[in-house]
Amino acid sequence: MTQFPQLNGFRGAPGLVRLVGHRGARGVMPENTLEGFEFTVKSGVVALEFDVVLTQDAVPVVTHNHHLLNAATRGADGKWLQGAELKVSELPLAQLQSYDVGGLDGRTVYGQRFPDQVFMSNVRVPTLGDLLDMALTPQGADMLFLLEMKSDPETAHTPEVTERLVSEVVKAVRTRGLEQRTVLHSFDWNLLEVCGRIAPDMPRSFLTIMPKNADDPGEDSSKSVAPDFAKLGMPVPQAVVEAGGQMWCPHYLDVTPEVVAQAHALGLLVSTWTVNEVDDMHRMIDAAVDGIVTDYPGRAQRVLLERGLVWNEDVARMVAE
Ligand code: MG
Fold first, then answer.
1. Which CATH fold would you assign to the domain 5-66+124-320?
2. Looking at the whole model, is its pTM more than 0.85?
3. How would residue 221 be classed by pLDDT, with cut points 50, 70 and 90?
4. Of 1-15, 54-68, 131-145, 185-199, where does mean pLDDT reach its minimum?
5. What is the 3-state secondary structure (H, E, C) of the chain?
6. Which of 102, 146, 160, 262 has the most CB atoms less than 10 A away?
7. Is a pLDDT exceeding 70 seen at residue 321?
8. What is the mean pLDDT of residues 303-315?
9. What backbone torsions phi and psi does residue 147 show, to the nearest 5 degrees?
10. What's the gap in Å between 55 CA and the centre of ligand 1?
11. How remote is the CA of residue 273 from the centroid of ligand 1, in Å?
12. So where are the chain's domains?
């Protein structure tokens, strides 16, 4: 059986709950930016979740939506974009990187979701390569990647499109020798099947949200390409195992102690998203998840420390001193 050492960085243990920075630290730093990732790693949270789509010229870039969110994107005139949102897959990299994604428009619903996010300027959408390169520097030596690939509902049924996304992502990881620090992650189980074929040397994480839980504003997600859970004919954790997954990432409202125990009995790791409120963090810890994916890694650190818990072994040593 293939060994996946990176999974140790996502595995909980008595006294230890893993923290994963969601899009870096979206609650306080511009999401999916090198500035945000650097901040998160310097905070001591070295596992990063982020989202990858391809540009028109087939460069994997780190951004969440298939369309640039006007509420987070400013043009050369310094003003937030207006009108129909631009589609990343229709923009060459150079044009994409002409926009500034360092600040939210506080007049928008999305901007109001993150009132504590700093406002920065001259921040660009990074390429996947830019982010992966950080892991090769001394300060990034412990970085781990929960690398989400975003399937476009408009093209998810086209196998070539999925294959191209997976191939470009895997190439970027392999070129840098980061296969053992990366977990491939998606809502799209077909895409994860392609990952299993193209990259059996990397573990796979299956994202789920049950249909009863609605989207938050501004999330143009790939959830619509997820399987029909009502038709699985088996519990979700079992379906993840049968699909070859090593990790299951359920939405936090779908988490109970029972499903976590069920997943653990099947040998899965469980990381839940996106857990931002203190009460929910406590509930997830009580449910015995391995990891918490959060926009507020600092808030989660404080919750863990208050309970005498840590998120990595180094912290355990420091707290003990
Ligand atoms: Mg994501």
1. TIM Barrel (3.20.20)
2. yes
3. low
4. 1-15
5. CCCCHHHHHHCCECCECEEEEECCCCCCCCCCCHHHHHHHHHCCCCEEEEEEEECCCCCEEECCCCECCHHHCECCCCCECCCCCCEHHHCCHHHHCCCECCCCCCCCHHHHHCCCCCCCCCCCCCEHHHHHHHCCCHHHCCCEEEEEECCCCCCCCCHHHHHHHHHHHHHHHHHCCCHHHEEEEECCHHHHHHHHHHCCCCCEEEEECCCCCCCCCCCCCCHHHCCCHHHCCCCHHHHHHHCCCCEEEEEHHHCCHHHHHHHHHCCCEEEEECCCCHHHHHHHHHCCCCEEEECCHHHHHHHHHHCCCECCHHHHHHHHC
6. 146
7. no
8. 95
9. -95, 105
10. 17
11. 9
12. 5-66+124-320
- Tokens 């959830």 -> residue: 223
Distance 307 CA to ligand 1 centre (A): 28
CA of 314 to the centre of ligand 1 (A): 26
Tell how far the Cα of 289 is from the centroid of ligand 1, in angstroms: 18
pLDDT in tens, 77-112: 999 999 999 999 999 999 999 999 999 999 999 999
Ramachandran category for residue 267: left, alpha or beta (phi over 0 → left; psi -120 to 50 → alpha): left
pLDDT digits 0-9 by tens, 294-303: 999 999 999 9
- Residue 2 binned pLDDT confidence (cut-offs 50, 70, 90): low
- Cα of 50 to ligand 1 centre, how many Å? 5
The Å distance, Cα 321 to ligand 1 centre, comes to: 36
156 Cα–ligand 1 center, Å: 17
271 CA distance to ligand 1 middle (Å)? 12
- Give 32 Cα–ligand 1 centroid separation in angstroms: 9
